Amino acid sequence: MAERSIPGWLKTTLELGPVALFFLAYLWLKDGRYAVFGTEYGGFIIVTALFVPLILASTATLWALTGKLSVMQVMTAVLVTVFGGLSVWLNDERFFKMKPTLIYALFAGVMFVGLWRGRSLLSMVLSEALPLDDAGWLILTRRMAWFFVALAVANEGIWRLMSTDAWVNFKTFGLPVAMIGFFIAQAGLFKEHERKDEA
Q1: Where, subcellularly, is it found (predicted)?
Q2: What are phi and psi of 140, to 5 degrees?
Q3: For the segment 120-149, what is each residue's pLDDT rounded down to a tens digit?
Q4: Dist. CA 133–CA 137, nearest whole Å
């Protein structure tokens, strides 16, 4: 399928909308207990069961409109389905809470493997958005790999040691803010290693 462009607001809505709806549904249903086919579920499990088809639908819509999905979008959809499905099937919210840890650990591992081979795999994903020279890509990839390690450790600590409310707030607000903060902190790197032909 040929790649097509869509308005930025629509792309953002499809990417972030499911997370926002997860948060709102959790606030609404979190304190209830719900019987489904004779089994009682907490609000978090019900919201997770609703989130899985929602993320799949938004991902499929994004692919249908643009003809392209990033590796992270595909991995997120797969892991949400697997770990969300396990949480619902086993009535155990811990599986869904582990998902961000696995996503960040996998991407950190992929980046470290690329660095070990002397390549920036990150440049294959972001080269159109960030015109950096080769040295800049290696530095950014190293920093981002360690950043993902830190996010994985933070997610593990929060879901294991804190309340579900704290984890939902961290996932909904903390992770995006941390990601934005990381890229803002790289402003000096972007300026120093901007590719000359794109300056």
Answers
A1: Cell inner membrane
A2: -60, -40
A3: 888 777 766 677 888 889 999 999 999 999
A4: 6
CA angle (184, 187, 192) in 5-degree steps: 165
| Sign of the torsion angle spanned by Cα atoms 41, 47, 50, 53 | negative
Please choose, from the candidates 145, 133, 136, the residue with its C-alpha nearest in 3D space to the C-alpha of residue 104. 145
Backbone angles phi, psi at 121, to 5 degrees: -70, -25
- Over 81-99, what HEC string results? HHHHHHHHHHCCCHHHHHH
Integer Cα distance of 35 and 195 in angstroms? 58
Confidence band of 199 (pLDDT split at 50, 70, 90): very low
Nearest Cα neighbor of 144 from 75, 73, 72, 59 is: 72
Taking each helix axis from N to C terminus, what angle separates 94-116 and 134-161, rounded to the nearest 10 degrees? 160
Residues 6+ apart with CB under 8 A from 68: 1, 3
